[in-house]
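Recap from last week: sequence in, structure out.
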Amino acid sequence: MNQHFIFETDHWLVSHRRDARHPGYLMVSSRESKSDLHELSANALQELGWVLKNTEKLLHSFYAPCKVIFYKLDFSSGFSCHFHVAPVTNKLLSEIVSHPDYTNEPDGSDTILFLSRTYCERPLTEAESLTMNDVVSQLRKAAKTSLNRDELTPAR
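Predicted structure tokens:
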């Protein structure tokens, strides 16, 4: 099992972003080797709504964020269709507001850029890896208990 996996379905894998220090920064990745939505099978597209809905519910139940953001960038070649999903807490918004490069009223673009630049894009230290492993374990347990087992296969 990939140590970052939270849960999986027939067509999608939900995992913690490998280089993210922001707890709950997840990736929803297609199992199909297609990079664009229009290339995915009808079954994968049909299942996507359920996966996104339950990923958001999981993050709301675990972090009580003021918002959960989803985004699909698709600039890097070689990746299957995937979405970035992150809980936006008041603490995160305060960090963005206090940073000199961002506005006093951050929007989704500010949040995405701040998360990427501040909490990602470099290897984790050993201590950060241990913290992320704990977050993944807690999210995996929460997913197993909160999501309908008939509709997904929990990460193994």
